[in-house]
UniProtKB/TrEMBL annotation:
Keyword Cell membrane: yes
Subcellular localization, as worded in the UniProt entry: Cell membrane
The protein's name: Alkaline phosphatase
InterPro entries assigned to the protein according to its UniProt record, in alphabetical order: DedA_domain, VTT_dom
Transmembrane intervals: 12-30, 50-72, 140-163, 175-193
UniProt domain VTT: residue ranges: 30-159
Source organism (scientific name): Devosia nitrariae
Topological relation to the membrane, as annotated: Multi-pass membrane protein
UniProtKB keywords: Cell membrane, Membrane, Transmembrane, Transmembrane helix
Keyword Transmembrane helix included in the entry's annotation: yes
Length: 202
């Protein structure tokens, strides 16, 4: 995959960076940890500008994450709750859990979106609760832009400074992403095994 990403950036430049970052947010296995550092390296060679790389990467990332926000917004909290209730043990989420999460997000949502855009493996998923909670689109985009610009800026700067060693950035970030995914899977398994309908508790 890394060679394909490099070829897209080399051949398409800014549009390639934009499309890759859209895809990275829609299909998380495509790593921004490789896209932006290589783009920063290309900028260091003088083939692209740092400003252009940052703009293309940020706008692409926002376009991709907004698709998840829009899907969750269309689904809505009520339909999501009914879906989880029907799925039961498979969802491992019940109405009380959703109500509690909704109250938490209502209070801390803006901070959660901002910080979430800076955390590998969470960056895309944070758009879903924002959409379910019907966070205003203008607020979601403003907060997401701030977090995304910081993330793409860090990765681009790393690639610019490291030059040919830009791939080492992916090696630093990958363990964090893997740890978060493993933790999420373990939590899901625990909730699946210990799940009980609310009416059966007590």
């Amino acid at each position: 995959m890394s060679e394909w990403i490099i070829d897209v950036i080399v051949q398409w430049g800014y549009p390639g960076i934009f499309l890759l970052m859209v895809a990275e947010n829609v299909f998380p296995p495509i790593p921004s940890e490789l896209i932006m550092p290589f783009a920063g390296y290309v900028a260091a060679r003088g083939d692209l500008s740092v400003a252009g790389v940052l703009i293309a990467g940020t706008i692409g990332s926002l376009a991709g994450t907004s698709a998840w926000y829009a899907a969750a917004r269309l689904l809505g909290l009520d339909r999501f709750t009914r879906l989880c209730n029907r799925l039961g043990r498979v969802a491992t989420i019940q109405e009380d859990d959703i109500d509690m999460a909704a109250r938490w997000f209502e209070r801390y949502g803006p901070l959660a979106v901002f910080v979430g855009r800076l955390i590998p493996a969470i960056r895309t998923l944070i758009s879903v609760p924002a959409g379910l909670a019907a966070m205003p689109l203008s607020r979601f985009l403003a907060i997401s832009t701030a977090g995304t610009l910081i993330w793409t800026g860090i990765l681009t700067t790393a690639g610019f400074v490291l030059h040919e060693n830009y791939e080492s950035v992916e090696g630093w970030v990958d363990p964090v992403s893997t740890a978060i995914v493993v933790l999420a899977v373990l939590i899901y398994i625990y909730r699946f095994v210990t799940w009980k309908p609310i009416k059966d508790i007590g």
